[in-house]
Structures
1.
Amino acid sequence: MWVRSSMTYRASFVVTVFGNLTVTGLDFVGILLMFSQVDSLGGWSLPEVAFLYGLSVTSFGIADLALGSMDVLGARMRDGSFDTLLVRPAPVLAQVGADRFALRRLGRITQGAVVLGWALASVDVDWSAAKVLLVPVMVVSGAAIFSAVFVAGAAFQIYAQDAAEVQNAFTYGGTTLLQYPPSVFGKELVRGVTFMLPLAFVNWVPAAHVLGRPYPIGLPGWAAFASPLVAVACCVLAGLAWRTGLRSYRSTGS
Amino acid sequence: MGSGRLYAAVAAGGFRRYATYRAATVAGVFTNTVFGVILVYTYLALWDEKPHLGGYDQAQAVTYVWLGQCLYATLAIQGGGAEKDLMERIRTGEIAVDLYRPADLQLWWLAGDVGRALFQMLGRGVVPFVFGAVFFPMALPTEAGRWAAFVVTLLLATLVSFAIRYLAALSVFWLMDGMGVNQVLMVTGIFFSGMVLPLNAFPGVFGEIVRVLPWAAQIQMPADVLMGETDPLGAFVFQAAWAVVLLGAGRLMQSAATRRVVVQGG
């Protein structure tokens, strides 16, 4: 239904898809602009940063396609229309995901995949079977980790009701953070993104292994392969948070 | 003077409306602070690699980041100000009611948007800026004159920002739906206002072009005036010229739209 509704205004839809591609591509244009002035950022070359960028954006794009509508949740709670979802005979999470589902979000995945493809072709890596295998594993685990963040954010919105933007700080902020090398950021921040909110497992940790760089806070070598486990743990925790949130939901009554 | 009071009331309404959503404001402050921290680190790495990029030292680059976070919502850099409601009213046909009002359409929406901007500045912009000043080295002036000039550039930036978004909103009279225009606003706003990188640091001819576009009036000019990188008078003239041109264009487009408008029914 949401797909059909967006096709009604055709000219606008075309502009929107194009716009979406450009919006998401802008971060990368920003990175290109930076590299037009310097040869490396935090000691990482352009193909290496592009590798991080492609992984982060593709994973995020997949999560966003499935669950990006979570930020409508706060509005639905305020106007009371969230109650409608609760009485329908379908999982609430699936309904929220499909709410305002937008095909234009394919733009982000496409753009991430293109950059990732270019990065894979240009990075100077001694490819082994394990490293090759790690790339799709990163994309899938990364998408799962971002999805968990989206769901946890949605659970938080049940309490906060009017704070969709806090979620943006973690989702959009997270993907922006991961587009740059960990060496750019302060130690405390990197530690936080590794152990508290394990976004580092989307790309930083496994990508450091692929590119043959030591991980900045001295994680053991096998940590590069821990992304799927981290992803499963995140999803379980987010699922629990969502269920707890749903159970404590109080309608606004409007 | 009666009409002056009317627009003041509309502005106050705009202010109050945004002041109502307290949780959203706090959330916005948090988001702007998080993005500010991420950007500051990347800028520091960049300026480490190439000191004096765009004529800024590190403290100035940091100041630029936090000013950007402060003005992001204030100037509705990615859209989402008065123009969003205006587009919706044009799309649904409610604009017909506005056209009957004994008030000027452009001034009415400008007043509402100024109220919104003022609230976003105080409620959402100041805290990340102060956070940045406390935790990172910034290049802030000590003389009052420069702060006064900075306030003037902010007012002019608000005018230019509104003028751009008003033009975009009016295009919905012909396009019927604002989604695509909003995207364009977002792209151009983020990129050409210098949210990605200070416009000073854009390379070559491209940089020269970007620095004379109206978006340069929004963050780049206030930043350069605040940090003493440019002559305030030149900045005022640049901003005012764009404000006059764009507001004038809005006026022309508005009369074209209202003369042969087909209001959507509903």
Note: Chain A touches chain B at residues 6, 9, 11-16, 18-20, 22-23, 26-27, 29-30, 33-34, 36-42, 160-166, 168-169, 173, 176-177, 180, 183-186, 189 (CB under 8 Å).
2.
Amino acid sequence: MSATVTQRAEPAVARATAQRFGTWYVTEHNLRRLKNYGWTVVATAFGTPLLYLFAFGVGLATLITQNRGEGAVAGVDYLVFVAPALLCTAAVTVASEEFTYTIMMGFKWNPIFFAMNAAPLQPFQIVNGVILFVAIRMTVTCGIYFAIVAAFGAVQSPAGVLGVAIAVLGGLAFGTPLMAYSASLTEDRGQFAMVMRFIVVPMTLFSGTMFPLTQLPVGLQWIGWISPLWHSTELARVTSYGMTEPTWLSVVHVVYLVALAAVGWVLAARITARRLNK
Amino acid sequence: MSTRSPSRVGGVSALSAGNARSVVYRGLLATKSSNYLVVLSGFFEPVFYLLSFGIGLGSFVGAVTDSRGDEIPYAAFIAPALLAVSAMNGAIYDSTWNVFFKMRFSKLYEGMLATSLGPLDVALGEIALALLRGALYATGFLLVMQVLGLNLSWWALLAFPAVLLIAFGFASLGMAITSYMKTFQQMDWITFVMLPMFLFSATFYPLSVYPPVIQGVIQALPLWHGVELVRGLTTGSVGPWMLVHVLYYLVMIALGLVFTTRRLRALFLA
């Protein structure tokens, strides 16, 4: 596709191709940009899951088994219990990286979204391209994560591989509303630090990830109910080790995640369009 | 630097004008006008971890045997560790990210060193700022621990200076390391060193779950000494062996200060 550009096509032709394949161009641009911090991506994609698995799946699991015996948490080994949560958390982490400063940069510090819009790409193509790219990055990260988790023997059912797709869906359900918020910001006054501190960190800690949600006082359980991470983790537990859950609840998880992702997506596209067409 | 006055040649006087407080004052002014909310909110992070692990997970784990063989509730076991971790994080973020920005982007130190300030003033001033922030978090977190009944001994009062010692150690070393960083991506390696240290330094479970070789490696790392020191104080299992932890940090501080001052001099005054 990029060959068309180097061959210096007629402006009208170039314009038509850009308009036609706009979304893919944006995705491609982002994938190329990833090369700038490629080693970080590789190191974190492999290193982080290994570290967390050792720390919680092995280290903490030893302590829990010592104190409470086998199958103390939800009837399975702690490693099996915690692995789907770590998988889903990885997607949320990618989302919180890619949908915050990067979005503000595209509008403000290195306003490439305006350049793309003049290219001429439609605002919705820019948004779609970015979201597609993040979905790809999540899939790769979670794919690696899943392979490592499976190598640890923490996946009991072949259906567990669906956990990758579930994690990506959960990541998008959290990420697209965040993208809409980031697109609406014009000044950096530490909002992203606040998002990390008061949304991302509490979400990863209180979404039934390290322990079942019911362990928390009822006053705190609502955090899980509204948290996309809780919904995706519960779904991933169903596919990974057959956690028993009423079917209607599984349906609620899927519907909630899809709805969040869709609403966020539409909002992000609208806000971006309004801002670029100013 | 031909304009330097002759009295500043040689010895410590060549490195310092004894005016680190103006660096601190400038830092406080800058914080007040820009990111004080971000700074204050840092207090909540260890509190969230404490609520999640201590209360949520704690009921699964029950009691834990500490390194001295005493049984303590899980929340009382991890709370001091989180306090030590927050001292490390606060000091590292202040002395790496903030320093990196000031060094590479706003060129703040070049401006400071063009005045009568020397590299040791700048280093001490920046470290003092990191310590002030650490002191703020430590006070808040120790109060939370007190309210939740997780301070098991009066020795817990000494946890406050212990936290400052930990923060001092990490801040002085962190600043020296930051001086080698050239891009934002390299900064990610700092996170990459800190994450395993955070996860494995007997923070969430006792060291005894590891094989002896790994135990030895962890015991060589600074955070483990910090965790053991603070945990000993808040749980009241105190003894002369804790002086080893203190000594570890004193050496770290001394090395870090020498290292940082030399780097600042090499970068800006050579």
Note: The first helix of chain B runs from residue 20 to 33.
